[in-house]
Amino acid sequence: MKELTLSSLVLSGLLAGACLAGEYDRPGFVTEVKDGRLWVFREGSPALKDFKERGEPDKQFTDIGNGPEGMTVKSADEQTLKDYLSTLKK
Fold this sequence. Notes:
Blueprint: H1 2-21, E1 29-34, E2 37-42, H2 46-54, E3 61-63, E4 73-75, H3 78-88
Parallel strand pairs: 2-4
Antiparallel strand pairs: 1-2, 3-4
């Protein structure tokens, strides 16, 4: 019975994390919340792969407070940041 309960808790945690991770995604964009900031990447981009493997990129572009729920939005390139923010205004 303990194993079943533990398995249920682990599965619940994974599902909750999966739902939260994509909460701010838009078509063509993948988002990650890190330290209360929303990171934005183009779907399948090398920048997304690097972020998942190494963490925050050396070069970053930031828009303070203009993301969903007033979040700061960050990206590895300025055009991705601008394009993502433009999807929020529709």
